Structure to design on (137 residues):
């Protein structure tokens, strides 16, 4: 009697654990898993939701790609603008330097024309001294 009671309690325990572990499953059939609860593979599965998610994912990716391209385009335009601005600044600086040099050259030439050189002054002074000394005698 004690044996029957122990066997009956063990059988009840195994059955109870099996029912709790797999309450909805109909058990195993021919060693294969019953896939009626798998959503993606069921015959009655509505693929509209999956297609909608795929479409949303695709739109999001397209939007991200477009934003990345626009960012790269703005960066390229900014770099080109900086390069053009730098070239223009360099060109204007060189132009100012050339104007400054030409003005300096004109001033020096004008000074040479207006002021006799030291050599010319010495020769003029020597001639004047010679003529003054000859007049005094």
């Amino acid at each position: 009697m004690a044996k029957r009671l122990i066997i009956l309690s063990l059988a009840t325990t195994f059955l109870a654990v099996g029912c709790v572990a797999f309450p909805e499953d109909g058990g195993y059939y021919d060693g294969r898993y019953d896939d009626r609860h798998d959503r993606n593979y069921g015959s009655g599965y509505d693929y509209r939701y999956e297609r909608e998610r795929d479409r949303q994912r695709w739109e999001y990716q397209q939007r991200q790609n477009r934003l990345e391209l626009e960012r790269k385009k703005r960066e390229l335009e900014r770099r080109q603008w900086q390069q053009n601005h730098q070239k223009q600044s360099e060109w204007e600086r060189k132009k100012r330097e050339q104007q400054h040099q030409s003005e300096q050259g004109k001033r020096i030439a004008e000074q040479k024309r207006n002021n006799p050189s030291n050599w010319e002054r010495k020769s003029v002074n020597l001639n004047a001294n010679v003529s003054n000394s000859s007049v005094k005698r």
About this structure: Residues 36 and 101 are 93 Å apart (CA to CA).
